[in-house]
Amino acid sequence: MYDFTLTRPTTIADAVSALQGEDAQPIAGGQTLLPTMKARLAQAETFVSLTGISEMRGISAADGVLTLGGGATHATVAREAAASYPALASLAGRIGDPAVRTRGTVGGSIANNDPSACYPAGALGSGATITATGPNGSREIAADDYFQGMFATALEEGEIITKVAFPIPEKAAYEKMLQPASRFPLVAVFVAKYADGVRVAITGASTDGVFRWSEAEAALSGDFSPAAIEGLTPPSNDMISDLHGTPEYRAHLCKVLTARAVRSAQ
Question: Of 46, 139, 213, 241, which sits 20 to 30 A from 8 (CA to CA)?
């Protein structure tokens, strides 16, 4: 890696201020950024660590909404959200390995928006609201507007994710087919049933990143059972093709894992 300067602000305001410096970049758990830096695929003169900001680590549930600080680690979510939102806690508890879960953060995962990351599926499947804070203050972004393609988001320059609010559904589940080498999902599905309908978010399958399977949502909103999607399969033309699976295989997994999620939803 190249030489760089690391700053460790203790407040959101100080972090935002530090990010206005020339060639400054935020770093949370560093689970994606550090390997990328080691490969010399990313570099900045200054890295602004977000791990020392206590106001970004809280987790709370009130009025049917689970709110996670952007700096909350996966391990903390798995432990502290289990009672209020079991499906999201299950998602967090199966990310990577213990080392990744101890360091990786909610905000880091959603900000990076890896096309095979788990948290984007949880946020999009829950219809979450993402709070981004930058030099012009804070703003709320609906998950449907936030995820904009592979590694692309609605975040603007100098903004960081300070919290994410997840409406708690009546039932939900997360199912994934694990790619054992990377421990990313080959395909994963988050299903959430709300009073006004069902949301189905899929990660790991599409070249455009996380997406909602609207056809399955419509069918499951009328009949929340695996039988409702028996005749459905998402189109494979935009699915990822690599040594782990063809586009058709990934499309098939979308259907299989959605059915499993519906079956196991609680």
Answer: 139
Q: What would the pLDDT profile of 61-75 be if each residue is shown by its tens digit? A: 999 999 999 999 999
At 12-41, the pLDDT tens digits run 999 999 999 778 889 898 877 777 777 777
Are 45 and 60 contained in the same domain? no
DSSP state of 209: -
| CA–CA dist 220, 122 (Å, integer) | 18
Q: What's the pTM value of the predicted model, to 2 decimals?
A: 0.95
Within a 10 A sphere around the Cβ of 248, how many other Cβ atoms?
A: 12
* Three-state helix/strand/coil letters over 21-54: CCCEEEECCCCCHHHHHHCCCCCCCEEEECCCCH
Domain boundary among 167, 186, 214: 167
**Are 160 and 50 in contact, with CB atoms under 8 Å apart?**
yes
Count of CB atoms within 10 A of residue 238's CB? 14
Measure Cα distances from 24 to 2, 41, 70, 136, 157 in Å: 14, 16, 19, 17, 10
Strands (E), the chain: 5-7, 24-27, 46-49, 59-62, 65-69, 129-134, 137-142, 160-167, 171-178, 185-194, 197-203, 211-212
Same domain for 193 and 228? yes
